[in-house]
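Subject: Sanity check before I submit

Could someone independently write out the C-alpha cells for this chain? I want to compare against mine line by line before I put it in a report. The sequence has 466 residues.
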Amino acid sequence: MRVVLADVRSSSGGWVSKDTVVGGYGSRLEPFSRVTRVISFLKQHYHNVPSVHMAYLAAILAQWGHEVRWSRGEVVEGDVALVLSSLVDYRNETAWADAMRARGARVGFVGITASKLPELFRDHADFLINGEPESAVQRLAQGEVLSGVVASEPIADLDSLPFPRWDLIRDERRPGRASRWSSRPIGGGFPLLASRGCPEFCTYCPHRILAGYRARSIANIADELEQLCERQRQPYVIFRDPLFTEQRDRMLELCDAIQARGLSLTFEAETRLDRLDPELLDRLYAAGFRAMSFGVESVSPATLKRSGRRPIPETHQRAIMEHCRKRGIFTAAFYVLGFLQDDWQSVAATIDYAVDLGSTFAQFKILTPYPGTPMFKQLQPLLSETDWQKFDGFTPTFRHPNLSDRELRFLLGAAYTRFYMRPSYVANLLKVQNASVRRWVGRLDRKVLDRHARQETVDMSRPVTC
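---
Independent answer below. Compare away.
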C-alpha cells in the first residue's frame, strides 16, 4: 500500500507552526510590526522543524512493509493519505485533502484538532483518527480499513514504538551549523519526545487534553539519540516534552547515559524553572544542553493560581537565569497577556518583568481559549471570534472584561518592541559580562524605554478600529 503522509505547508500569510506547538493546534504569527517581521523571518529559518508525529507514523508504516510518500502540499499519488491537522491552517489542509480524494485516495486526518473539532474535517475525509494516532495507524498498517471517527487509544508503553523515520519525511534541506546568536542551527533540528502529555494542570494549555502523561525509559531515549548520532555528525536535538525535567533523577540518568555512550550532540528542551537547579544545569550542560524555553506567563502569582498554574518564586527564577547566563545557555521565556484578571497595569508589569528578567528571547501571546481545555469552557460565553483560524495566539478571540481588542493588540506590540528594541537585549545576546559596560548599557536602556513610552502615548492617541 502506498501511504502519503502530509504536513501541508501554509500558503497564506505569516509563519505557521504545527505538530507539537500549542499541543498540536498550531500557531500563526502574522507580522504586525517591524519587530515581529524580523521574528517571523527568523522563525522561518530556525523553527522550520519537521513533524515528529508524522515521523512516528512513517516508521510504523515502513515497519509493516508499506511504501511511504511525503508531501508538504504537493498532490502525490497514493492509496491512503494521512494529513496532520491544525486549527490555524485547517482550510488549507482540507483543500489538499479534497484534491487527494479527487485522485481516488482515501484520506484521514490525525492530530488534536481533528480529535477535538471533527466538524472542521468530516466533509473532507474518509476517516478521522481521534486520539494519539499510533494505535489506529498500526491497525491500518495491518490491513484494517478505517472509516468514520476512529478511536485510537494512547500507547501505554512508549518504548514499544519504532524510532521516527526522518529519512522518509524530512525536507531536503539539512540543518546547518549553530550561530553565536542561537544554539539552534539554521534549518532547525531533530525533534524528540522523551515523554507525552503533561503532569501539570494549567487550565489554558492543550498539552494535557489528548492523553495522560507517560515517559519513555532512559535506555530507549539514549538508543534513539545514538541512532541520530550515527545518522548525522553532532545532531541538534529538540526535546518537545512540555516539561522535560519533571523528574530530576531521570535527567541525571539521561546525562550519564549520553556521556557513557560517548554521544556528541547538542540539545534544547522546554521545562519549568522550578524543575531546575544549578547542579542539574551543570550536568545537563556537560551532556550537551545549550538552550531552554520556559513559561513565566504572568508576573502575578494570584493570576497564575486562578489559571491552575503553580507560581515559581521570583528569586528562584532570577537565580536560574543568572546561572544560565554564566553557563552560556540560551533562554526563551513565554508570556501570556490578557488573563481575565489582567488590566493595563498588570500587563505592563508583566512586560517590565520580562525586560528585567533578561532571557535571551521572549515570546508574548494573547490568552487564547483552545477547545477541550478548561479555559475554553470558562470563556465560551465570552467568545467574540467565529473564525477558528484566528485562534492563533496573537489575535483577541473573546470579550475581555478590562481590555479592548485594540488595547490587547497594542500591548502585544509594545511587549515585543520594549523587549527586543533596547541596548541591553543586544548585550545579552552577545553575552557581555563586563560590569562597566553593563552599567553604560543600563543608562542607554532607560533613554530608549523613555522614547518607547513617548511613542506609545502618540500611538494610543490615534483612533484605531478593532
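---
OP: Matches mine. For the report I'm noting this point. Residues 462-466 have pLDDT under 50 and may be disordered.
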